[in-house]
Amino acid sequence: MSTPPPPSRRGGRSRRHDAAPPGRRGSMAGLAGFIERQGPPVPLDDIDRELVRRLAADPRASQRQLAREINMSGPAVGERIARLERSGVIRGYTVSVDWAALGFPVLVHIPMIVAPGADLTQILTDLHDIPELDELIAVTGTYDLIARFRLRDHAHLQQLLLEDLWPIDGLQRIETFLSLGEVTSTSLLDRLLGPAQRQEPTDLGEAETGA
């Protein structure tokens, strides 16, 4: 006879749920309602790209400082930044933290396979209820989801697996990948938006119109 999972220390409840209704097609049916949709590219010029790069490097940079660095007036810089915000290119301003200094030095990536017929809505709800969840993405290929967690130590990983992940109904298979550390590199924005960026393909329709 099977033994029910122990109650979680996070609220004292199990993450077992009633079976999903019959007839559900595919393990990831209904995912479209949870995926963030991408909008079309926003037309940017070199000044826009430079502002994005500089703000990404220093979100606290003032408009006056930016104006001085790119040789523009303060009001002109402010209008460009406002337009970048309205168009969604700049989605917010944040800080980069040292997770080890905050007490969470362990980074774990956990790919997951969702069982056919599983209640995807409940699975996603249970995963988002885990405080240590840093990122959750849907992927193509062998796995359906990849989650990233910030943890304190091995005991914290053990708690995550035993009390939070394994009791979730509908997760058919998971694997655990411990990060050894980030391989340092230059900023992605510097590589994509910098002076040496690759040229975007020319739209033939626009080329013919301008001819």
Provide structural commentary.
The chain is α+β, with helices and mostly antiparallel strands and 211 residues long. It has helices spanning 46-57, 63-70, 74-86, 120-128, 154-165, 188-193, 204-210, and strands at residues 106-114, 133-138, 145-151, 171-174, 177-178. Strands 1, 2, 3, 4 and 5 form a five-stranded antiparallel β-sheet that branches. Strand 2 and strand 3 (145-151) form a beta hairpin. The longest helix is centred in the middle third of the chain and has 13 residues, at 74-86. It is elongated and about 60 Å long. Residues 1-9, 19-25 and 201-211 have low confidence and may be disordered.
Provide the fold topology:
Layout: H1 46-57, H2 63-70, H3 74-86, E1 106-114, H4 120-128, E2 133-138, E3 145-151, H5 154-165, E4 171-174, E5 177-178, H6 188-193, H7 204-210
Antiparallel strand pairs: 1-3, 1-4, 1-5, 2-3
Helix pairs in contact: 2-3
